[in-house]
Amino acid sequence: MNTAFIALLALLLIAALVVDLRARRIPNRLILVGLAGASILHAIALAAHQPGRAGPDAWSPLAGLLAGGAALLPLYWLRACGAGDVKLMAMVGAFIGAPLVLVAALYTLLAGGLLSLVFMLPRGVAAQTRANVRFMLTDWSLRLRTGQGARIEPLAMTAARLPYAVAIALGTAAALIWPLARTA
Questions:
Q1: 74 C-beta neighbours (distance < 10 Å), count
Q2: What is the pTM of this model?
């Protein structure tokens, strides 16, 4: 049963990675198929009196989904990743459960940092990245001091849109191979 969980998750992550590399988006349909698959496989495992990959309880996939989404939500609020990335990490959580998805999120952040360095190497992207970071720091500083953001227009140009599904896939694989925490 564990093999079916991992195989379906790997297939969905590869599909998300390919679409994200091509279109810089992650389709909601893919997320919904993943959530349905995780729920069905978990229910089958529980019916066979085996713990599901997400954990031993019926609500384990939901806990994983919430933990996965919560792990990347601050990055979405800071405009450092997209909503599709948050939903993809939530879907991963539905498969692997709350404790392990937090490890996967940590590895994802590390992989995302490396990925961002790779994307900054082309000429001109580093300068735009510095300008964007300067804008974000100014905005955050003003929000902390005054409660309002900067009264300047956000930068129209982004330095590079990262295909963060790559980082999520790598982070998830690393968490499954080298878990930092024990799962149920």
A1: 11
A2: 0.80
